[in-house]
Design goal:
Length: 283
């Protein structure tokens, strides 16, 4: 059963409305999508107020059917060849020092969109050579060649979220595979020195021991960075919120994760995959 009343710690303060409007207008002008808008992220006000955004490339229609996600599940359109230039222009206009690029899953494309990811990374490097680049990628259906295409473009961080514990995959991520996601993170380390990152949502019905096992599984493939946040159902049609996790439990998970060897952990109710991504201290 879904819990309808959100606790106090999940209430969001509205501020910096002018900066939010300016960011939205700029993104609309460049025909860009952000995961902030498409996924109804609770931090959109704060992040747009800081003139930061996670760019969502390869369109706005996803080929997967995850029950937690608000991104539209329709037949995707053609890839926009101007998108790399538009993302680069937005990065320059916003003066970003850390750029986060994600996408819908495009199982309909031969390389899953890996070549487009590389094109965006390369264009951003042209206009912002000192910026760090983080990509949040799909699993490319396990295609090593596609992954190597992204690795060759040399982003500073490759992020791929496991999202939840393996027991809940059939209900939450029916077209994904937990083992395949771990293998992707392992391959990044095998073929490069790029930092890896992953994330998990809480409140979907997982147990504490399952969450800790996910942490251990991620460390077994040398995952460097971790985000842990509260799942919030975008609508009544999505997977229900089973439980709201207390902030103190997020702190406890953070301590456990750091003890297991993660280099940096963001664990809080409103934490999301790219939340305060620019705060990561990389060696």
């Amino acid at each position: 059963m879904s819990i309808k009343r959100k606790p106090e710690w999940l209430k969001i303060k509205v501020e910096k409305l002018d900066q939010i409007r300016q960011t939205k207008e700029m993104l609309q002008k460049l025909s860009l999508h952000t995961v902030c808008q498409e996924a109804l992220c609770p931090n959109i006000i704060e992040c747009f107020g800081r003139k930061t955004a996670t760019f969502m490339i390869l369109g706005k229609h996803c080929t997967r059917n995850c029950t937690f996600c608000n991104v539209t599940k329709e037949r995707p359109g053609p890839v926009d060849p101007r998108e790399p230039d538009h993302v680069a222009e937005a990065v320059k206009e916003l003066g970003l020092k850390h750029v986060v690029i994600t996408s819908v899953t495009r199982d309909d494309l031969p390389d899953g969109g890996a070549g487009h990811f590389a094109a965006v990374i390369n264009k951003v490097k042209e206009v912002a050579p000192k910026a760090t680049i983080e990509v949040l990628i799909p699993d490319f259906q396990g295609d090593t060649g596609a992954l190597l295409t992204v690795i060759k473009a040399q982003p500073e961080i490759i992020n791929h979220n496991v999202e939840t514990v393996p027991r809940l995959y059939p209900a939450v991520r029916p077209l994904a595979d937990y083992g395949r996601s771990l293998e992707l993170l392992e391959k990044v380390k095998r073929h490069s020195r790029i930092y890896t990152k992953s994330g998990i949502m809480l409140g979907l019905g997982e147990k504490k021991e399952e969450v800790i096992q996910v942490f251990k599984d991620l460390r077994s493939v040398d995952c460097d960075l971790l985000t842990v946040g509260q799942y919030l159902a975008p609508s009544s049609k999505h997977h229900p919120v089973v439980e709201y996790i207390e902030p103190s439990q997020f702190e406890a998970y953070k301590e456990i994760a750091l003890e297991l060897g993660f280099k940096h952990v963001i664990s809080a109710p409103l934490a999301r995959s790219s939340y305060h991504a620019d705060d990561y201290k990389l060696d």
